[in-house]
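Appendix B. Extra example for self-study. Work through it before the problem class; the solution is given directly after the inputs so you can check yourself.
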Amino acid sequence: MPPRLTRGGIRSTLHLYPERKHRHERNSMSQAYIVGAFEHPTRKADTKSIAQLHAEVAYGALQDAGLSVDDIDGYLCAGDAPGMGGLSMAEYMNLRKLRYIDSTDTGGSSYVIHVGHAADMIAQGKCDVCLITLAGRPRAEGMQTGTAVRSAGSGVPDEPFELPMGRTIATMHAMVAQRHMYEYGTTSEQLAWVKVAASHHAQHNEHAMLRKVVTVEDVVNSPMIADPLHRLDCCVISDGGGAIIVAREEIARKLKRPLVKVRGYGEAVKHQMAGAVDLSYSASVQSGKTAFSMAGCKPSDIKYASIYDSFTISVVLQLEDLGFCEKGQGGKFVADGNLISGVGKLPFNTDGGGLCNNHPSNRGGMTKVIEAVRQARGEAHPAVQVKNHDLVLANGKGGSLCTRHGCGTVILEAV
Amino acid sequence: MATPAFDRIPVSPNEDPDNKPFFDAAREGKLLIGKCLDTGKTFFPPRHVSPFTLSNNVEFVESKGLGKIYSWSVQRGKEPYCLAYVTLEEGPTVMSNIIQTDLDAVKIGQSVKLVFKATEGAPVPMFTPV
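Solution. Structure tokens for the complete assembly:
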């Protein structure tokens, strides 16, 4: 008997099928590998256009992989790419063999999610080599990313209720921190440890915007931006970009780079839920669950983690949501150098992250994947490279933790 | 040391056919929230579509304008102001500002009441400690 295709009435009938499983939970591993990765060295691009930056990072990733532009048959980008979806950039870069195009935009996490979409398309045989690019120049344009009230444009239904309130990226994330402190006793000093760890890593990165090692005191004594977040709790504003190339296994094995398999991935969205606001968790709860389930591993198996660090509180929330510690214990988990490579249990953002290195186009997901690839390959800076790098993770959060955001989780395996 | 809230003029809300009842009521000093008649549940922001069933079986109902601060932050600078989430007695949590108070005394759990704040367009709902 064929399956019933129609659903009756308003009420969902999906609960009638409790045995229903997501495809990835019953399927074998994907066959996608990250074969190319490139981070633009610039942090201030006064003399370059955004399209130019996209093309430069694409070229860098192709060079890294040992592939040419004509090998690309899938292209993924997000809202930072000029033009409609990926069309203008496909034309600018003269991509002529595209069989897959994807402009999923969840803000800064888009590129983490793109890795999963590329892997899905490759697994389905829809394409062979996917290019993902990100680039922007908010610093050259003098953008006040975190402290100015910004509109997404007309017709956005939430904005008439939010813009008059003067919400900024900083105050919205600060409300998450404030609530975390209230519910779990998290302290400013604990949050500061996230920045301290990032700065320990950034000192070794010649391209990092902020290379000075800072202390907990430096962070908590820096000017208050939005209570309880200080200036050093906030990420940098930088220009630049990055690119990733995802390819099928047969191609990856022909190339000369270390093999980095895309072992698991997940994505999820969270918002204000029609007034049922709960700032204690992010969409990473679900994206992480999906990714770990697909990868067949658990948080304690992960040797390195790239965690989206728009603000120090963002890291604490994601670490809890991904299961690296219990809910509410994130402050204790990050304290005392636990995120510092060679010192703590979970080395994170060994490039210096968005807090110290780079947050190109105000979107940190791409650089999260790139540093995870460097770690999986064993090509991070020797001072921060983890010894055992068989399983690494990259997690992205885009939008606002406080209102609407999308999270993407990718688990990579050094084969 | 107290930090008085800067008396800023909020940007005017963009009015459209969906939110018209809300801002029409705001002009009369009333705060409306949504109520889904399929489920009996309240919601915010109010709209003509139920966020629980997607049907249009909804009504706009008046809130008493009393609530508690769920979370808050002060945007520092020359013109400091307090962004907050306020959980209304009727259930939904709304994004707003805490005004007419010492910003250094704002606390989670604090009881607040509705005060409409004028803009160049429709007034918008803000809150002040009870």
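Self-check: The first helix of chain A runs from residue 23 to 26. If your reasoning did not lead you there, revisit section 3.
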